[in-house]
Design a protein that fits this description.
The protein has twelve helices and eleven strands. It is of the alpha+beta class and 540 residues long. The strands form three sheets. The protein has a six-stranded antiparallel sheet. It has a three-stranded antiparallel sheet with strand order 7-9-10. α4 runs antiparallel to α6, α4 runs antiparallel to α10 and α6 crosses α9. The radius of gyration is 37 Å and the shape is elongated.
Length: 540
C-alpha cells in the first residue's frame, strides 16, 4: 500500500493492537472517509505490511462491504507484479473488515505530478508497466474503471529500477458477475473517464485505455486533456469535444508518443488500440527510439568552479653587485607579485559573476514553480468547492424527492385505512343481517338482495384493499431506495471534505517548501552580491 504522511491520533484504538494474533499495528499512514490505512508488522514472518480497515460508518453500507470483499477477490485473481497484491482479509473484534496488503515505499503519480510534469522516458516506463497489469486484468474480464494519478503508484527501491503498481480495484467491473451498482450508474474520476462510460454505457478494455491515455497526457504536459470548474462540464467535454493535440500543449513531445496517446483518446472504443498488449508493444518500440533527454536538474556549482593554483613565486637569485641593479630587481619582484594578485582577484570576481548568473536562472525557475504551485492550490480548492456544491445540490434534490414520497405514502396509507374501515363496517352489517334473518353462509343463494349486495361490496373492498396495500409497498420500496441514495450521498460528501483537507494540506506543504527554497536561493544571491561588491571595493 502507498506510503503517505499522517498525524497519528493518540486515541486511535488500533495503534499498538495485534489483529488475528499476527499483525501488530504501528502507525497510521493514510486516513479517509471510507477506511484508514495502517503500517503493521507481521510478527511471524518479520514483514512490514499495510492494513486497510473499513471505517465504522462505511461498514454500515452494504455495497461498500461487498466492494471490499470484491477488491480482495479481484486482485488475487489477477496475481500480477504490476497490481498491488492483497495478502489477507479479516475482521476486527468490532466487526470491521480489513485488507492486508504489501507495504509500498515511493509515490503515486499524483504526488509525482505535484513536483512537475514527467519526461518522456519516465512516462513511457510507467505506461509500459500499467499496460502489463491491465492486460492481465482484461484477460480475466476485469475492467478497472478508475485509473487516475492517485491509483498508479511508483515504487522506488535504492539501486533498482522503479516498479509500477495499479491500486484500488474497488469499483472494477467483472464480467459475468452480479453488478453492485444499477445499470447506467457512473463511478470513478471525471477527468479520466471514457466517453462511453460517462454516458452510462457498458465498459470494455478500451475504456481503461482511454483513461490511461488521459493520464499519460497529463503526465507529459502537466494538465489533463479536459478541465473545468465543475465535474459535469468535464464529463460533457469527454463525450463531445476533441482534445487539443498533446504536441500543441507540449511541442517537444516525441511525435510517435503523441500519436499513441491521442489514439487512446479517440471517442469510439473500436478506434483505440485493440488491447493493452498492443499499446505496450508500441510503447516498447517508442522507448527504443526516444532521443536522449537533456537533464533538468540543478547545475552543481562545484562542477563549474575552475581549479586555480597560486602563481608560484621563485626564490630570488643572489642580488647582483651594484645599487641600481639591485633596485631594478626589487621593483621587478614587486611588480610580479602585484600581477599575480591582480590575476587571482580577476578570477575571483569572474567566479562570483558566474555564481550570480546561475543563481538568477535558478531563482527564476523556482519563482515559476512556486507560482505554478500556488495556482494549483487555488485550482484544487475551487475544484473541491464546486464538487461539494454539486453534491450538496444533489442531497437537496433527494431530500425533496423523499418529502414527496413521504406525502404520497401518507395518502396511500390513508386510502388503505379508509378501505379497511369501510370493510369492517360492511362485515358488521352483514353479521347483523345474518343474525336477524337466521341464515348462514351456506344459504346465500336464497338471501335477500340487500345481503347479497353487501357480500359483493365486501369482495370489491377486498380487491381495493389489496391494490392500496400493493401501492403502499411500492412507495415504501421507493422510499427505501431514496433513503439509501441519501445515505450514500451524505457519505460521499463527508469523504469529499476529508479528501479536500488531505490534498490541500499536502499541496500547501509543497508550496511552503518551494517558497522556503526560493527564499534560501535569494539569500544566497544576496550573499554572493555582497561579496562581489566587497571585492570591487578592495580592488579600487
Amino acid at each position: 500500500m502507498r506510503e503517505s504522511s499522517i498525524t497519528n491520533l493518540k486515541d486511535d484504538p488500533f495503534i499498538g493492537r495485534t489483529l488475528d494474533g499476527r499483525y501488530t499495528i504501528t502507525e497510521a499512514v493514510g486516513r479517509g472517509g471510507m477506511a484508514t490505512v495502517y503500517k503493521a508488522h507481521h510478527a511471524v514472518i518479520e514483514r512490514q505490511v499495510a492494513i486497510k480497515i473499513l471505517s465504522p460508518k462505511a461498514s454500515g453500507i452494504t455495497n461498500i462491504n461487498k466492494r471490499f470483499y470484491r477488491e480482495a477477490r479481484v486482485v488475487n485473481r489477477i496475481q500480477h507484479p504490476n497490481v498491488l497484491d492483497v495478502i489477507d482479509l479479516g475482521q476486527t473484534e468490532e466487526g470491521l473488515l480489513y485488507l492486508v496488503m504489501d507495504y509500498l515505499s515511493g509515490e503515486s503519480v499524483f504526488d509525482r505530478l505535484c513536483k512537475g510534469k514527467l519526461g518522456a522516458r519516465e512516462t513511457v516506463h510507467v505506461l509500459e508497466q500499467v499496460c502489463r497489469g491491465l492486460g492481465r486484468a482484461h484477460d480475466l474480464g476485469i475492467i478497472h474503471r478508475d485509473l487516475s494519478p492517485s491509483n498508479i503508484y511508483i515504487c522506488r527501491e535504492s539501486g533498482l529500477a522503479s516498479t509500477v503498481k495499479i491500486l484500488d480495484f474497488g469499483i472494477a467491473f467483472i464480467k459475468d458477475e452480479t453488478r453492485l451498482s444499477m445499470p447506467g450508474t457512473v463511478l470513478g474520476t471525471p477527468h479520466y473517464m471514457a466517453p462511453e462510460y460517462a454516458m452510462g454505457q457498458d465498459v470494455t478494455p478500451a475504456s481503461d485505455l482511454y483513461s490511461l491515455g488521459a493520464l499519460a497526457y497529463e503526465m507529459l504536459c502537466g494538465d489533463p486533456p479536459f478541465d473545468s470548474e465543475d465535474y459535469s462540464s468535464v464529463i460533457v467535454m469527454h463525450v463531445k469535444d476533441a482534445p487539443r493535440p498533446l504536441i500543441e500543449r507540449e511541442p517537444g513531445v516525441f511525435p510517435r508518443l503523441n500519436q499513441a496517446i491521442m489514439r487512446c483518446l479517440l471517442k469510439k472504443p473500436q478506434e483505440r488500440f485493440g488491447n493493452a498488449y498492443e499499446l505496450h508493444d508500441v510503447l516498447e518500440s517508442i522507448a527504443r527510439d526516444l532521443p536522449a533527454e537533456r537533464g533538468t536538474g540543478k547545475i552543481d556549482e562545484l562542477a563549474s568552479t575552475k581549479l586555480r593554483s597560486e602563481t608560484p613565486t621563485a626564490a630570488p637569485p643572489p642580488a647582483p653587485a651594484g645599487y641600481e641593479v639591485a633596485r631594478k630587481y626589487v621593483d621587478k619582484v614587486k611588480s610580479d607579485r602585484q600581477a599575480a594578485l591582480d590575476t587571482r582577484t580577476a578570477a575571483s570576481v569572474k567566479d562570483l559573476f558566474d555564481q550570480l548568473e546561475k543563481l538568477d536562472v535558478s531563482i527564476s525557475e523556482s519563482e515559476g514553480l512556486s507560482r505554478d504551485m500556488e495556482i494549483k492550490v487555488a485550482a484544487t480548492k475551487e475544484r473541491f468547492e464546486r464538487a461539494q456544491a454539486t453534491l450538496t445540490d444533489e442531497v437537496k434534490r433527494v431530500k425533496g424527492s423523499l418529502g414527496g414520497l413521504e406525502n404520497e405514502m401518507a395518502k396511500v396509507a390513508g386510502r388503505r385505512k379508509g378501505v379497511e374501515h369501510r370493510l369492517i363496517e360492511v362485515r358488521t352489517r352483514i353479521a347483523d343481517m345474518e343474525r336477524t334473518l337466521g341464515v348462514g353462509s351456506g344459504q346465500r343463494a336464497t338471501m335477500p338482495d340487500g345481503l347479497t349486495g353487501s357480500y359483493e361490496e365486501v369482495a370489491r373492498l377486498v380487491v381495493g384493499w389489496r391494490e392500496a396495500k400493493s401501492a403502499e409497498k411500492t412507495v415504501e420500496e421507493s422510499l427505501d431506495e431514496r433513503r439509501g441514495e441519501m445515505k450514500d450521498l451524505e457519505f460521499q460528501l463527508e469523504q469529499l471534505r476529508e479528501n479536500r483537507d488531505q490534498n490541500l494540506a499536502r499541496l500547501e506543504g509543497q508550496a511552503a517548501g518551494l517558497r522556503m527554497a526560493l527564499n534560501e536561493k535569494q539569500a544566497e544571491r544576496a550573499r554572493v552580491y555582497k561579496a562581489l561588491m566587497e571585492q570591487g571595493a578592495a580592488s579600487s
